[in-house]
Structures are given as C-alpha cells and as structure tokens.
Design goal:
The complex is a heterotrimer.
Chain A lengths: L2 E9 L4 E10 L4 E5 L6 H9 L6 E6 L2 E2 L5 H7 L1 E4 L11 H8 L8 H10 L1 H5 L10 H13 L5 E5 L7 H16 L3 E5 L3 H6 L3 E6 L2 E6 L1 H6 L1 H7 L3
Chain B lengths: L1 H35 L6 H18 L3 H5 L3 H4 L1 H25 L4 H23 L14 E5 L8 E5 H23 L1 H11 L1 H6 L4 H26 L7 H14 L5 H19 L3 H4 L26 H13 L11
Helix pairs in contact in B: 1-7, 1-8, 1-10, 1-11, 1-12, 2-5, 2-6, 2-10, 2-11, 5-6, 5-10, 7-8, 7-10, 8-10, 11-12, 11-14
Chain C lengths: L4 H21 L1 H27 L7 H16 L4 H5 L2 H23 L8 H34 L9 H23 L4 H21 L1 H4 L15 H4 L1 H28 L1 H11 L1 H6 L4 H27 L9 H15 L4 H37 L7 H23 L14
Helix pairs in contact in C: 1-2, 1-16, 2-11, 2-14, 2-15, 2-16, 3-7, 3-8, 3-14, 5-6, 7-14, 11-12, 15-16, 15-17, 16-17
Bound molecules: adenosine-5'-triphosphate and magnesium ion.
C-alpha cells in the first residue's frame, strides 16, 4: 500500500471538518475524491500532506507512519501537492517555477525538466515567460509540472481541471493517466465527477467530512445512488 | 553656465546621493515586506546601528584607511555590514520569530519592530551619546573639483570621495543583488517565497533559510546605507525617524516586494527632495532682463523650505496610496 | 465581584504606590503626576478603541496630541493686542479669502466630471491647479508671516474659554484623522502606521517652524486653565481642582466607551477586527466603520493632548517627542490590555508613574555606576553621562513593548470577550 490514511479527524480550529475519513491507494493507481462543495475534499489532501495537524487518525506512507513529519519534509519523502488555488509562482518564469519544484533536489535535474517539457509541450516555448501571463490551461500544467519535478511517489492534485475548456480538461486528464503509468500514485480531487471516475482505479465519495462510498470508479459510476446524488441526472 | 553647474551640484548630485541612500534602505524594507509581510519600522535604526558599528571598528582599526588610500570608515564597511547582518538575524530570532511561530497577525510584528527600534536607539545613544559624530576627525575628506570645459563656467562640479564611494557601492550592491535573485537557487527561492509563501512551503523550500537570507541582505544593505550616509555627512543619532518615512515612501512607490522598484523609488524620492528644496531664484535670475519689470525675483524661491523637507516623501507617499496603492511598478501587496 | 478581582488588585496596587509617592515627594508633586496620568489616560482610551476595538495601528499619536495642544493654545491664550492693532489681521483676512477662493476653485475642478469632462483631463487640471495653488499660498503667506513676527511676535490667542479649546482641539485632530484615514484605511494595515508616523513628524515640524503662529522654539506660556490657576489658589488646591476635572472626564469617557463596546456598534467593530473578510461578507461596510473609529479615537487623543498641554501651561512644539507622546502610550495600552477600557486607564496611570519615577532612578543608578566604575576600574565616565543615562529609558520602553507582545500579548487586564449568542 503506497498511502494509507485512516480515520482522519482534522479541521481549522473549531469543529473538525473531517470526521474520520479513510483513504487508501496503491502505487501506479489513480484515486479520485468527489463530493459536494465544502465536503472536505481539499482538507483531506491538506491533511495527507501535513498542512493541517491531525486531531485523530494517522497517515502511513508505505507502511511508515508519517503523521508527525512537517510538510516541507514530506516533499523529500516523495509526496508532491498541487493546491486548488494559487498553485504557481506568478512572478517567476516557467522554468524557475519548475526549478522551485526541484528545490530539494541536490542532484542534476535537467532530465526531469526535459521530461516535463515532453509531457507538457506548450511549456517548452514558454519556458522563459512569466508564469502569471500564461493561459489557464498552461498555468495548470506549470502547477502539475512543478510538483512532478521531485519525481514523487504520490501526487496530490486539487481540482486540476477547474475552469478549463473541455479540450484542456481532456488534455490534463490524459497527462494524469500518463503520470500514473510511470508508477506514481495520483490522488485527485475533481468536480468533473463523471469524467474523473471513468479513469479512477478507486473512487472516494465524501460528504460532510465522511466517506460515503468507496469503490472502484466503474462500480461507483454504475451505482444508482451515487449517480443520482453526485453525478447529476 | 555657472547656474547650470550649481543646479548639477545641488539637484542632480545631491538628489542622486540621498536617493542612493534611500534605495539601500528601501531594498531591505521591500524584501522584508515581501517575505515576512510586515513593515519593518526598525530599519532606519538598523542603518544607524550599522554606522555605529563602523564607528567602533574605525576607532579600533584607525590607520587602515590611509594604508588602503580610502577613508577608514569605508574600509571597515564589510566588518560593519557583517555585524549588522548578525544583529538583524539575532533580532529576528529573539523578537520576531517567536511571534511568527504563534501565527499572529503580521501587524503585531510591526508593533514589535517599534519596540526593537526603540531598543536599538536607546543602546546606540547610551554608548555613543547624543552628539553628532563624524568619521573625519583625524583624516581629511578628499574633494574632487571637476572642471567644466566651457569658458563661461568658472565654478566646478564638486563631489567628495565618500560620494563617489557611495555611487560605486550602490551600483555594485544592486548588481550583486540582481545576480543573486536571478541566478542562485536561494535567490530564486526568495523571490518564490515573496510571491507565494504557501506554495514555497509546499515545494519543500526551507523557509527559515530564506528568512535568514533576507535578514542578511537587508542588514548588509542597511549598514552600507548607514555608513555611507555617515561618511557623506555625519552620524546623527536622531536620524532614524527622518529617514524612515523616505525609505517607506520609496518602497511603496516602487511597489512593495520589488527590489528594483525600491531602487527607482529611492531615487525618485531623493530627486524630489532635492528639487523641492532647490533655490530656483538662482536659475531664474539670469533671465531677469526678459521678465516684465513688476515681477520681482525673491532671494529664496524654493518649492518647500528646507525645514519642511520631510513633507516631500509624505506627499509622495499619500499621493501613491491614493492614486495607485500597488506602487508604480505594481507590487504584490495592497 | 470575584470576576473583577484582577482589576481590583491591580488598581489597589497603583493606589498604594501613589500613597507611597505622596509620602516621599509630597502633595504638589503627586498631584501633578496624577493630573498628567489622567490626561494620558484619555489619550490611551483614544488609542485603545483604535487598536483594541478595531485593530488600527496609529503610530502618530504625537501628531494628534500636538494638534489638540496647538488648537487649545490658539483658542484660549489671551489676545495679543499688538497683533490686532497692526495691519496683519486685515492681510490675514484677505489671505483667508484667497485660500477660500482657491479651495472653491479646486472643489469646482473636482466636480467637473459632472459636466462631461473626462476623468483624465480632470486629474490633470487638478494637478496643475494644485501646483499653482501651492505657489500662490506660499508667496502670499510669507510676507504676512514676516510682518507678524516683526510687529507682534506672533498672532496670540483668541481668549476663548479653555474648554472650548479642548473640544475644538479634539475636533481638529478628528478632522485630520479623517483625511489620513480616507487615504489609508482601505489598504493594508501597515500603511496607516507609516502615514500616521509621517504625519506626526510633519505636524511637529510645522508647529516648530511657523513662528508667526506658535512662536516656535520660543514657546508660548503661561496657558490659562479651566480651573483657577496656582497663582490664585496655590499649587495644591489648584492642581487638586484640575485633577478632579480630568478624573471626571476620564470617568465619563470610560462609561461612554464601555456602553459603546457592548452596544451592537461595538460588537460589529470587534467582528470586523477579528475577521474582516467574514464581516464584509455579512454586508458591513468595513472601511466606513474603520474610518469612524479612527476619527473618534484621534479626536479623543486630541482632546487628551489639549488637556495635557493646558496643564503644563506651556506650548512648546519641540517638547513633543515620539517617545513620550507615541510609544509611551503604546506601552500603556499594550501592557494594560488592548480592547479593555479599564486596562487602558490602569496602564496609563501605572506606566506614567513608572515613567516619572524612572528619571531619578536611572540617574541614581548611573551615578552609582560612574562612581564605582571610576573607583574600581579607573573608568572615566563621559561628560554627558546624564543625557545618555536618560536614553536607557528609550531602551526600557522598547523592551517592554517586545516583552509584552511575547509573554503577555493580552496585557495585564485582557479584553473581556462577551459571548455573542
Ligand atoms: N483555511 C480554512 N479555515 C477555516 N475553515 C476552512 C478553511 N478551509 C476550508 N474551511 C472549511 O472547511 C470545510 C471544508 O472545506 P474544503 O475546502 O475541504 O471543501 P472542499 O470539499 O474542497 O470544497 P470545494 O469543492 O469548494 O473545494 C468548509 O466548510 C470550509 O468552510
Ligand atoms: Mg476544495
């Protein structure tokens, strides 16, 4: 098991937002978290990455309890995180954004950077442009590329396709599949629930800070209760 | 012709000189604002303390200046800068970091920096006294008089050695800073953290290291500004509140968080001050014959009297806040 | 009653200390200290509503104190006959007319968008007009100022009742605060601090250099009192009378602020302070509320400053220092407990006592150090040791601020948070 988070209880001071969430994912698999606004999806990612402390429960990476490791050291353990908003350095160039993603690497990472440009070809010509001036889709690529620069074992993506045109949504989802193929576990929070569950090895339906359903993506898509409440129509 | 030389001496040169000093202070202010998100009110006193350190080193090492052919105060500048950088880090560890660790609002850091500024002021005055000090008690200040190759010009352009050193130091500092921010890993991390502190943390950037680097740069530049100001004029212990407003104005005009903006802002404030207190009647007088007889040129015709020089940065500050609060170069913080 | 134990204990300690001082230094001395402390309490109440209720950082208290002090000097000082008999009043009246005209023109320009002039043209016109106005203002005021200084010294006062001076002083400070607040309150809180700091330095400079108006470094004295002066009653009775007046004022202001704090208005202010984003989302006009409280607090500061200056009987612009008239008050509020009115009063009195006592104490310590230093180590104390010694007070004030922030961020009398159901 790549990542095993059990019984997560966490919040922002005050009442907890998560009331015992379980997330499990194998290497090379795609996990998708869906649920209504405010369900606590982003909060799950934040607590797996250690940005907010756990009140209960634990997070294990390949069997090792990492609940007390601070977030900047989790990067070194192979977890990369792309926040939902403000996920690029707007005033830095594309290349500098990628370099910041590789900040903790002391080895030569030029090959990793070339791989990013292969994965996201539009970034190659734009490598010296200021990231804040890019289009929405390109920014999302910079954000994901930045996270991938450390060659993570686990990639946490918070709504990578929000606000993108359908063509770009397709693009990004293709890239997510490609990343997972290279034996990286990818945990995605998605608004495009139907589209996302189609590619999910495991889907987690969250509501009110709890797991409502956990199953394969296909089963969830075919589950009438899920379809009725969360997939529309 | 002489009037033009007078103008160069009084406006172009003095504006550039004080502008460079302001720029050196404002870069520190803007970096600290960008990284730690608070207005560092102790910065002017950090500059004064830097000059005070140089004064101590100069009295300990008197005689090294003549050997190097430079003013002793300038020769000991690296030592003073190192001491100021250490002081800045120490102040952060003792007074600012514990507050940051409690996750307080940044405005409380500002209050703490007011406390720090008073402590620095109290200590330097306790040891150095409240009188005006100069580096040139035993050495003499070299003055260059540049002849202007025109027949009508009988006056010279006058510039002193410390002023030349000030220009050189400022240019070198800015060049080094630029290289650091755009070429080195830590420099880029600093820009990244100023841009988006949360994402910097998420990327695994060690924010403590970046914070320390910020204090070192701010401390070194503050010391340079303080020492060169003291070399140019003298070390006045009550300097700090008079220089604080111009350097804040410079940082805000340039857009907070933008070092290059701070440089431009510093020069802008410096030139504005020089232009505002300049006695324009000297420039107009040669044209008196062309003016109608009823216009009488007063002996002093400056935009603001010298005593009110402080009004200039204040007016600039308020105008920018009203007109474009992000500064003319669009800083990141409003 | 147990709920107020802290308050009772702390105020009792202050009372005991005052008694001790009374025993050592005598009645006249103690009364003077207490009057000044109550004036500072009014100023501190002004700051505690700005900082404690609304989280607004005012680093220019000195400026508002100086405005209040100047206005009360101008209104209450006796009429200067040699000024009124000269030509100057006529020139000044003409000058006032000129200023009014300029103001009218500027106002007219600022309204030009109403007749279809584009915003950009309007701004350019206003800028040009401002430059002209500035030159006209300066070139006309200068000769008048010189004439006044030559013929009458300075323009003197208006001979109005002192209390009018205090109230108008407060209003003037509030008026200035309105303009500063308009420029800064929509922005990051740091900008208000920078702007107020600058304003305070400038107002001091102006008061110090406008000799025709304030006599500058020559100072104006003796200022009248709202109660009979020591010349009529003797020090002790007169000061006691002054103290009863200021004490009543503190009490009245305290009661009013206490009620405002608990009223919906105060609740809203706290909501804005604690979470301005949420408050804005609830539809409160955050900036307007902040402006209100900034103006109100500055008005109080000006009022307290007026009372302080009147009591000292001398208007000396150089006497306003950031240390005593800005930072000392910050220490009072931080140490007393921001947002707690009783804390501000306690802080003002306690810190002022420490401040007054620290002078002889510091000198004593340093004399001692100099004595033994020279005896044991042959240390030659510098000639200006006494002026230097007083700088250690600057250090102590700074240290108190940082230590309070770190170890008692709520102050000695923390704000009482009232649960909102
Ligand atoms: N920084 C924060 N401070 C306080 N409360 C927060 C914070 N972030 C989120 N919350 C609260 O936690 C709850 C869950 O938020 P979260 O962002 O995890 O939801 P989400 O499922 O990601 O929603 P969305 O689909 O809108 O992104 C919400 O009620 C939100 O108000
Ligand atoms: Mg979310």
């Amino acid at each position: 098991m790549l990542i095993n988070a059990t019984n997560l209880v966490a919040g922002y001071g005050g009442e907890p937002v998560l009331n015992g969430v379980d997330i499990e994912l194998e290497a090379g698999q795609i996990g998708v978290i869906v649920g209504p606004n405010g369900a606590g999806k982003s909060t799950v990612l934040k607590s797996i990455f250690g940005l907010i402390g756990l009140q209960q429960g634990k997070v294990e990476l390949e069997g090792e309890n990492i609940s007390d490791v601070p977030p900047n050291r989790r990067v070194g353990l192979g977890i990369a995180y792309v926040p939902q908003e403000m996920n690029i350095f707007q005033t830095l160039t594309v290349q500098e954004n990628l370099e910041m993603g590789a900040y903790i690497r002391r080895d030569d990472y030029t090959s990793a950077m070339e791989r990013m440009f292969d994965l996201f070809p539009p970034l190659k010509q734009k490598r010296n442009s200021i990231a804040g001036n890019l289009s929405g889709g390109q920014r999302q690529m910079v954000a994901i590329g930045r996270a991938l620069m450390v060659d993570p074992r686990l990639l946490l993506l918070d709504e990578p396709t929000v606000g993108l045109s359908p063509a770009f949504v397709h693009d990004i989802i293709e890239r997510i599949i490609a990343v997972a193929r290279s034996n990286v576990g990818v945990l995605v929070v998605e608004q495009n629930a139907r589209r996302a569950l189609e590619i999910a090895d495991t889907g987690f339906v969250l509501a009110g800070g709890r797991n409502l359903y956990t199953d394969t993506g296909e089963n969830l898509l075919n589950n009438p209760a899920v379809a009725k409440s969360f997939l529309g129509r | 012709m002489n009037e033009l030389i007078f103008f160069i001496n009084k406006v172009v040169l003095s504006g550039a000189i004080i502008g460079c000093i302001y720029a050196l202070g404002a870069i520190g202010i803007t970096l600290i604002f960008g990284i730690l998100r608070f207005a560092h009110f102790a910065h002017a006193d950090l500059m004064t303390t830097g000059a005070f350190f140089a004064l101590i080193f100069a009295s300990l090492l008197s005689g090294v200046g003549p050997i190097a052919g430079l003013p002793t105060g300038f020769v000991v500048l690296p030592l003073a800068a190192a001491a100021t950088a250490l002081l800045a880090i120490g102040l952060d560890r003792m007074f600012y970091r514990p507050l940051r660790a409690r996750n307080i609002k940044p405005i409380l850091l500002l209050v703490a920096s007011l406390g720090v500024t008073l402590m620095l002021q109290g200590i330097t005055r306790l040891f150095a006294g409240t009188s005006i000090r100069t580096f040139f008690t035993s050495e003499k200040k070299d003055i260059f008089r540049i002849d202007v190759p025109f027949d009508l010009a009988t006056r010279n352009i006058v510039i002193t050695e410390p002023q030349v050193l000030l220009f050189v130091t400022t240019i070198v500092s800015i060049f080094c800073l630029h290289q650091f921010l755009t070429r080195t890993r830590l420099g880029k991390a600093m820009r990244a953290m100023a841009d988006n502190a949360n994402l910097a943390l998420v990327s695994g950037i060690n924010t403590d290291t970046v914070v320390s680097a910020t204090w070192i740069i701010a401390g070194v530049l503050a010391a340079a500004g303080g020492v060169l100001l003291a070399l140019d004029v003298a070390l006045k212990p009550d300097l700090s509140f008079n220089i604080l407003l111009p350097i804040f104005a410079a940082a805000i005009v340039g857009g907070v968080g933008r070092p290059y903006g701070a440089i431009a802002g510093g020069l802008l404030v410096g030139f504005s001050e020089a232009l505002a207190v300049f006695n324009w009647s000297l420039l107009i007088r040669p044209f008196a014959d062309f003016l109608p007889a009823w216009i009488e040129i007063p002996t002093r015709l400056s935009i603001v009297p010298t005593e009110y020089k402080l009004i200039v940065p204040f007016v600039i500050l308020i105008a920018v806040l009203l007109w474009r609060p992000t500064g003319i170069f669009r800083g990141q913080i409003t | 009653m147990t709920e107020y134990r802290r308050e009772i204990v702390l105020f009792a300690i202050v009372g005991i200390v005052v008694m001790i001082i009374l025993g050592i230094f005598g009645q006249a001395y103690t009364l003077r200290m207490l009057v000044e402390a109550t004036c500072f309490a009014i100023i501190a109440l002004g700051l505690t509503i700005q900082w404690g209720y609304a989280g607004l950082f005012n680093a220019g208290i000195m400026g508002f104190v100086a405005v209040g002090g100047f206005i009360t000097m101008f209104l209450s000082f006796p009429i200067n006959d040699s000024f009124w008999q000269s030509d100057a009043p006529r020139s000044l009246a003409l000058f006032a007319l000129l200023v009014a005209t300029i103001a009218l023109v500027l106002f007219g320009l600022s309204q030009m968008h109403r007749i279809g002039i584009s915003q950009r043209v309007k701004t350019a016109l206003i800028l040009v007009a401002l430059v002209f106005a500035f030159f006209i203002f300066n070139s006309n005021l200068d000769p008048i100022a010189r004439m006044i200084e030559k013929e009458a010294g300075f323009i003197g006062g208006l001979g109005l009742p002192v209390f009018v001076g205090w109230i108008v002083g407060g209003i003037a400070a509030a008026f200035v605060a309105y303009w500063i607040g308009r420029a800064c309150l929509g922005l990051r809180s740091d900008y208000l601090a920078i702007a107020t700091l600058g304003f305070a330095e400038i107002i001091k400079h102006i008061l110090k250099n406008a000799d025709w108006l304030t006599r500058g470094t020559l100072t104006v004295s003796p200022l009248p009192w709202p109660v009979p002066t020591p010349n009529e009653l003797g020090f002790i009775t007169a000061r006691a009378a002054y103290l009863s007046l200021t004490a009543v004022l503190v009490a009245v202001i305290f009661v009013l602020l206490q009620r405002a704090y608990q009223a919906p208005w105060g609740r809203m202010m706290r909501a804005i302070r604690d979470n301005d984003i949420a408050a804005e989302a609830m539809g409160k006009n955050v900036n307007l509320r902040r402006l209100q409280i900034f103006v109100l607090g500055s008005g109080l500061i000006g009022f307290g400053g007026a009372a302080l200056v009147s009591f000292n009987r001398i208007f000396d612009p150089s006497g306003f220092t950031p240390l005593k008239h800005t930072f000392l008050i910050w220490v009072m509020v931080l140490l007393g407990g921001a947002g707690n009115n009783a804390g501000a009063i306690f802080g003002a009195i306690a810190v002022y006592i420490i401040w007054v006592m620290s002078e002889p104490l510091t000198l004593f310590v340093f004399d001692y150090a100099a004595h033994y230093g020279s005896l044991l180590f042959g240390w030659e104390p510098p000639a200006d040791l006494t002026t230097r010694a007083l700088q250690s007070r600057v250090f102590v004030i700074g240290l108190t601020i940082t230590l309070t922030l770190r170890f008692a961020p709520q102050g000695l009398l923390p704000e009482r948070r009232i649960k909102v159901s």
